[in-house]
């Protein structure tokens, strides 16, 4: 059966039968399918409940702050802008942007992750101005050029065919497209294989090819964390703090960009 859509509340909603059908593969109604690592992983309540604490408490706060700064820097002033966050998870950025006055939608395929986002929005008092939607990043339920900006953080390391997602993100943005990658020439490789689902790591040429395939042009790039995220996660903030200072110091030298474990890519439609 074909996918069907209807317009409601100023967004396009899917009313047809195209639903995710397997744990690791999203079956896309019209015969195509795209794997996403860890789709099942993020569907579990206990994973969603522990997600923020496990990654962004203690030394992880340095990561949370850095990522939020990367999003705000790339998007510029967001007040009254319409912004879509793809694979928003527990809504760390969605809620931050709502607090900054953006008209923001957070979309994710996991109900339990979205539930955390809704709780966070309510606790922060922005639940009236933020919308959380369950959906698939490979088939965004919005018309072309619907948002002023669209971004996805910590998502492309899960995607087996990232260009599919990036094209779709570009389609619904009339402005900036921001995403991050974990880098293949970095200390991240040391523990990547230990992670429950592993991560796709990108070289610079992978990113260049991805942007060219998606029809995107690079506007700005930032590289950070010579000591990869995993290093900070387990440490108390007081112990992580001096390491972060050394990390930032290294980052500001010529070696910093080459050794960085994460990159933030600010892009725009190459044809505009
Ligand atoms: C590592 S988490 C990142 C969450 C959030 N962006 C952050 O940085 O905290 C990855 C998220 O991608 C979501 N996800 C995976 N595949 C997806 C898909 N096809 N469409 C939408 N979300 C997806 C997962 O449910 C999960 O919430």
Secondary-structure class: alpha/beta
Bound small molecules, deduplicated = S-adenosylmethionine
Fill in the CATH topology. Answer: Rossmann fold
Quantity of strands, as a count? 12
Q: Residue ranges: pLDDT <50 for 5 or more in a row?
A: 1-33
Mean pLDDT comes to: 86
Overall 3D form: globular
What name goes with the CATH superfamily? Vaccinia Virus protein VP39
Oligomeric form of this entry?
A: single chain
Rg value:
18 Å
Helix content class: 25-40%
Question: What kind of sheet is the major sheet?
Answer: 8 strands, mixed
CATH class designation: Alpha Beta
How much beta, percentage-wise?
15-25%
Number of domains: 1
Can I get a quick summary?
With 272 residues, this protein is an alpha/beta fold. It has helices spanning 45-56, 60-75, 92-99, 111-124, 162-172, 188-192, 204-214, 229-233, 237-251, 254-259; strands at 5-8, 11-14, 25-28, 32-35, 82-86, 103-108, 130-134, 149-152, 177-183, 201-202, 216-224, 262-269.
Question: In words, what does this structure look like?
Answer:
The protein has 272 residues and is α/β, with parallel strands linked by helices. The protein has one domain (20-266): 3-Layer(aba) Sandwich (Rossmann fold), CATH 3.40.50.150. The chain has 10 helices and 12 strands. It has helices at residues 45-56, 60-75, 92-99, 111-124, 162-172, 188-192, 204-214, 229-233, 237-251, 254-259, and strands at residues 5-8, 11-14, 25-28, 32-35, 82-86, 103-108, 130-134, 149-152, 177-183, 201-202, 216-224, 262-269. Strands 5, 6, 7, 8, 9, 10, 11 and 12 form an 8-stranded mixed sheet that branches. Helix 1 crosses helix 4 (111-124), helix 3 runs parallel beside helix 4 (111-124) and helix 5 packs across helix 7. The longest helix has 16 residues, at 60-75. The two termini are 36 Å apart. Bound molecules: S-adenosylmethionine. S-adenosylmethionine binds next to loops.
């Amino acid at each position: 059966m074909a996918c069907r859509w209807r317009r409601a509340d100023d967004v396009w909603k899917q009313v047809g039968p195209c639903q995710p059908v397997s744990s690791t593969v999203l079956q896309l109604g019209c015969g195509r399918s795209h794997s996403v690592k860890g789709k099942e992983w993020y569907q579990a309540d206990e994973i969603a409940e522990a997600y923020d604490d496990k990654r962004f408490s203690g030394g992880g706060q340095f990561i949370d702050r850095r990522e939020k700064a990367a999003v705000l820097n790339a998007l510029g002033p967001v007040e009254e802008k319409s912004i879509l966050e793809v694979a928003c998870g527990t809504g760390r950025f969605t809620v931050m942007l709502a607090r900054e006055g953006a008209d923001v939608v957070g979309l994710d395929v996991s109900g339990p992750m979205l539930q955390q986002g809704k709780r966070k929005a309510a606790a922060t008092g922005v639940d009236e101005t933020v919308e959380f939607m369950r959906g698939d990043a490979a088939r965004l339920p919005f018309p072309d050029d619907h948002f002023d900006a669209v971004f996805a953080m910590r998502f492309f390391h899960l995607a087996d065919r990232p260009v599919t997602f990036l094209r779709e993100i570009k389609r619904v943005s009339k402005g900036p497209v921001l995403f991050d990658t974990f880098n293949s020439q970095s200390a991240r490789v040391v523990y990547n294989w230990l992670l429950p689902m592993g991560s796709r790591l990108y070289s610079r040429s992978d990113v260049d090819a991805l942007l060219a395939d998606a029809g995107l042009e690079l506007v700005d790039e930032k590289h950070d964390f010579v000591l990869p995220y995993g290093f900070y996660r387990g440490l108390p903030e007081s112990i992580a703090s001096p390491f972060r200072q050394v990390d930032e110091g290294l980052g500001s030298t010529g070696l910093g960009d080459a050794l960085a474990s994460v990159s933030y890519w600010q892009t725009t439609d190459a044809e505009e």
